[in-house]
Design a protein that fits this description.
With 61 residues, the protein is mainly α. The protein has one domain. The chain has 3 helices and no strands. Helix 1 packs across helix 2. The longest helix has 23 residues.
Length: 61
């Protein structure tokens, strides 16, 4: 369970970096994502989950 919380904490650190370092760029990226079709967002989510799972298997393997 500690690994889960450590991973979640790291996620929050990485998520906060772009808005902190470049708020204008972050705002533009969010605007572009909001304009994407649902299918595009689903594909991005699927790719992200697959990459994360593969990385987890490689690290833990």
């Amino acid at each position: 369970m500690n690994d889960f919380w450590a991973a979640f904490a790291l996620f929050l650190v990485f998520e906060g970096m772009l808005p902190f370092l470049a708020p204008g760029l972050w705002r533009e990226a969010v605007r572009q994502v909001a304009e994407m079709a649902d299918g595009q967002l689903r594909m991005i989510g699927l790719g992200s989950m697959a990459a994360g799972l593969l990385l987890l298997v490689l690290i833990r393997g």
